Amino acid sequence: MKRCNDVCCVCVGGEMFRSALGKTLGFVGYTIQYGCVAHCAFEYIGEFVACSGPSMEPTITSHDVVFSERLSRHLCRIENGDIVIAKSPFDPHMNICKRVIGLEGDKVCTSGPSDVFKTHQYVPKGHVWLEGDNLRNSTDSRSYGPVPYALIRGRVCLKVRRGTSPDPSHIHFNL
Amino acid sequence: MKRCNDVCCVCVGGEMFRSALGKTLGFVGYTIQYGCVAHCAFEYIGEFVACSGPSMEPTITSHNVVFSERLSRHLCRIENGDIVIAKSPFDPHMNICKRVIGLEGDKVCTSGPSDVFKTHQYVPKGHVWLEGDNLRNSTDSRSYGPVPYALIRGRVCLKLWPLHHVGALNQSPTGRVVRRSD
């Protein structure tokens, strides 16, 4: 009689374990699936970016949140004047936010406004020339040269203002 | 009698349409889901690459198929002597396959073996110095300078085709890889 009770307890315990394992694996499977779908959405549609730093003032100030769409980058439709998010050439884990001043083949002016002699440079194939809107306080292509197009992540198309703005939900189009 | 038949036909037609639509949407949903999972597998685990060109001979010849793993790149564990697949600095749609000769801060020799005066250059922060194994027939950092680390896609770890050469890849035959003391 005692043995029968022991065997039944082991059976029930084993079944509970299998059921819990099955539910855990199912949960993990769903998480992986939807994580992958979300990753692909951020990769191919767009992502929200929180900017920091003064190099794009007054267009984008520190702690602004912008939406950066990925389609232009994948379809190679980045144009002069677009604001782009790119990977920093000097730190693969950091991103930079600058405006495209010249595309491949364009002639860009590399001298400052106070220089007597104007110097120019042609943007090489597969590269872009980036500059911040706040020219006095921006490290950009004027110091590190043209940036390979493949480092561009996306084009900033919307600004969602945050923080001390009088209208926190104000959304800007056409930066 | 006739009207009843017509209405029944419309009902059956409408139901068949809804059922077909539901199956199509379900199929599309599954395709998107598993496509995303496959994309993330290629993005974070590794991918198969068919190489072409003579710049990495004799280590990798044209029409070889190699497996390039992504983990080293994401964990920043690329080292001197590794063969990497990177996006070309001159064409964002092309990839290049070269060997890492120097990492950021390393001193690389930029002059040829036949030059009298040796010139050197330090690899800037966040960049790597890439060279092909076939030095006479390779366009690499000796012509276009150091390449940003962020352009690296993955590290080649296995050769899969041709079948009689399956296995790990050889060390650099050029002797130009910078040795690190740490």
UniProtKB/TrEMBL annotation, chain A:
Q: Which UniProt keywords apply?
A: Hydrolase, Membrane, Mitochondrion, Mitochondrion inner membrane, Protease
**GO cellular component terms?**
mitochondrial inner membrane peptidase complex
What GO molecular-function term can you cite, just one? serine-type endopeptidase activity
The catalytic site is made up of 55, 98
- This protein's superkingdom? Eukaryota
Q: Name one Pfam family in it.
A: Peptidase_S26
InterPro entries given in the database record: LexA/Signal_pep-like_sf, Mito_IMP1_subunit, Pept_S26A_signal_pept_1, Peptidase_S26
User: What SUPFAM superfamilies does this protein's entry cite?
Assistant: LexA/Signal peptidase
Report any one BP term from Gene Ontology: protein processing involved in protein targeting to mitochondrion
Write the Enzyme Commission number(s) for this entry. Answer: 3.4.21.-
Residues in Peptidase S26 domain copies: 34-111, 117-157
Which compartments does it reside in? Mitochondrion inner membrane
Q: How is this protein organized at the quaternary level? A: Heterodimer of 2 subunits, IMMPL1 and IMMPL2.
Record family assignment: Belongs to the peptidase S26 family. IMP1 subfamily.
Protein name, per record:
Mitochondrial inner membrane protease subunit
Give the species this sequence originates from: Oncorhynchus mykiss (Rainbow trout)
Q: What is the lineage of its organism?
A: Eukaryota, Metazoa, Chordata, Craniata, Vertebrata
Q: What gene name does this entry carry?
A: LOC110506942
Automatic annotation (TrEMBL), chain B:
Taxonomic superkingdom: Eukaryota
Position of the signal peptide: none
The entry's active site is 55, 98
List the EC numbers from the record: 3.4.21.-
Location of this chain's protein in the cell: Mitochondrion inner membrane
Statement: the UniProt record of this protein carries the keyword Hydrolase: yes
Q: GO: which molecular function terms?
A: serine-type endopeptidase activity
Alphabetically sorted, this entry's keywords are: Hydrolase, Membrane, Mitochondrion, Mitochondrion inner membrane, Protease
Output the Gene Ontology cellular-component terms. mitochondrial inner membrane peptidase complex
Q: Which CDD domains match?
A: S26_SPase_I (cd06530)
Family matches, as SUPFAM superfamilies: LexA/Signal peptidase
PANTHER family referenced in this protein's UniProt entry, alphabetically? MITOCHONDRIAL INNER MEMBRANE PROTEASE SUBUNIT 1, PROTEASE FAMILY S26 MITOCHONDRIAL INNER MEMBRANE PROTEASE-RELATED
- Which protein family is it in? Belongs to the peptidase S26 family. IMP1 subfamily.
NCBIfam families hit by this protein: sigpep_I_bact
Q: Subunit structure of this entry? A: Heterodimer of 2 subunits, IMMPL1 and IMMPL2.
Q: What is this protein called?
A: Mitochondrial inner membrane protease subunit
Which organism does this record belong to? Oncorhynchus mykiss
